[in-house]
Amino acid sequence: xxxxxxxxxxxxxxxxxxxxxxxxxxxxxxxxxxxxxxxxxxxxxxxxxxxxxxxxxxxxxxxxxxxxxxxxxxxxxxxxxxxxxxxxxxxxxxx
Length: 95
Fold this sequence. Notes:
Layout: H1 2-32, H2 40-52, H3 65-93
Protein name: YGGT family protein
Transmembrane segments: 7-30, 69-91
Keywords: Membrane, Transmembrane, Transmembrane helix
């Protein structure tokens, strides 16, 4: 039973961490690619990415807006992948 619960928890942590990073990367791609900000997909991804980026969204402020998105949201994506890896390791130790 314990193995099953730990496995389920590890799966949830893995997918959530990956989903957060993917949202941030998609936001970077849409922004750098010049996607229409009025489009429902672009605006929805941006609305989800903003709070997920935490304090990273304005960590660096280069004058180029696209570079700002690449650096700040890219760092946030790396942060979530790191958190995912650490939490997965901790959860798997419970087994």
